[in-house]
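ZP: hey, is the flavin-adenine dinucleotide complex queued? I don't see it on the tracker
AM: it wasn't, my bad. submitting now with these inputs:
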Amino acid sequence: MEWGRCSEKELKDLEAIVGAENLSTGESALGLVSRDESYYTPKIPPQVVVMPASAEEISAILKIANPRRIPVTARGAGTSIEGNPVPLFGGIVVDMQRFDSIIEIRPEDFITVVEAGVGYKDLNKALGRHGLFFPPDPGAAATIGGMIGNNASGVRTIKYGATKDYVLRMTVVLANGKIMEIGSLATKSSSGYDLARLFVGSEGTLGIVTQATLRLAGIPAHHSAAVATFPTLQAAAQAVFDIMRWGFSPTALEVLTADLVQMLNRDRGLGLREEHTLFLEFQGASEIALEEELGAVQDLCQEAGALSFQPGLGIDERNKLWEARYETYESIKHTHPGADPFVADVAVPISRYPEILEYTAEIIRDHGVTGYPFGHAGDGNLHVVFMGDASDEEEWGRIVRANEAIVSRALELGGTCTGEHGVGIGKQPFMEREHGASLGLMREIKSLLDPQGILNPGKVFP
Ligand SMILES: Cc1cc2nc3c(=O)[nH]c(=O)nc-3n(C[C@H](O)[C@H](O)[C@H](O)COP(=O)(O)OP(=O)(O)OC[C@H]3O[C@@H](n4cnc5c(N)ncnc54)[C@H](O)[C@@H]3O)c2cc1C
């Protein structure tokens, strides 16, 4: 079936809904909403971008699009890496930037009510005044709606979990324009199907989220950080496994290869030993408890063969390290001017982390590609930033094949094709293998909620 296009009259109707200043058909505005951080581009360019400001406006837009099968793609900050918000088949892009209000902060209930276009960093600034924070932390300038779309997580997942663990209630507009309230304000509930969780990670393919009630955590009083170096990736991964196995709960446990440390030293003047490295972070209620935990973790690292362990870093040094870790992607791009990034993202059961790390290093060598592996080791999540020339078919082909090999191995190890970046376009080829018959069930859910297939078409399903 063909995709619909807005007629002149429908464009006028959209303008009447959002206001002329909140609609654009201009080339540069459409260009901006056609891309994310990946290299995927629309097959059919989008026709119009609208910036509604209420669930009712989105409902009215969908009521125009649905009967005519015009694609509608929600867009947050566009920081995805797998083509998730790329409007593949044209149509209407719903830019959520005017959903920018923090509606309520209820410190006594550890909850906040926010609109979907609020940036999580801005939210955390506001929450900080109440001694609270929203823990999922993807690093990039993501919005709450985009984080819900991709079930984003990040460096602190190991202790705090992912976005799905924090969404209590939300307002969603369905493809037919119906506005639904789902979930409750209780932090636990056994009441029926968990619809909120169904929408988290659905990448805008089941409905458009306009508002969410989020669970919050208290900002811990004390922090500590450490850096450990290892002669092999195997030894670093073994230390990660032992730390988890003995029940310690670091807030972050990040692994960086020696090559990456060398690159960060050059780019950011870190002065670290250029070995395979673990960044560790702990948070707690008392300094004494933190010191004890760090002492025991140091023993475990040394038993795993650590070359060095630098505990109890001061606040400035800790901030510098974490800033470098957050900026890893930018540093890699900076070090390879003119080259294109391709980011791999897989997750495996924690006991198989050493294996996937070793295998990844081999694959990079064997395919003759430039790639920097690093990852949220504590939850078995591995990233590789490959750098190459996307217009060079031969070189880019080697990068794509290296990525395929890593994803295939992650699946063989019982893992997933995407730990946190979502399926988008890039991970579709692996969905059948990962989910088998249950992918069919996902398709049935999609056609029940969006029978015309207008919401972010061409995503998630191969
Ligand atoms: C340098 C860098 C580092 C990153 N590190 C991490 C990381 O550590 N962890 C991690 O999880 N991710 C990471 N990401 C990926 C990305 O930042 C996250 O997935 C983020 O949550 C995307 O948010 P966004 O606002 O940019 O959403 P977008 O990219 O705009 O959209 C994401 C998806 O959600 C949908 N969507 C957007 N808004 C809504 C809405 N209101 N209702 C329904 N659907 C909606 C879109 O259609 C799309 O499918 C990183 C990205 C970069 C560039």
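AM: back. The first strand starts at residue 23 and ends at 24.
ZP: great, adding it to the tracker
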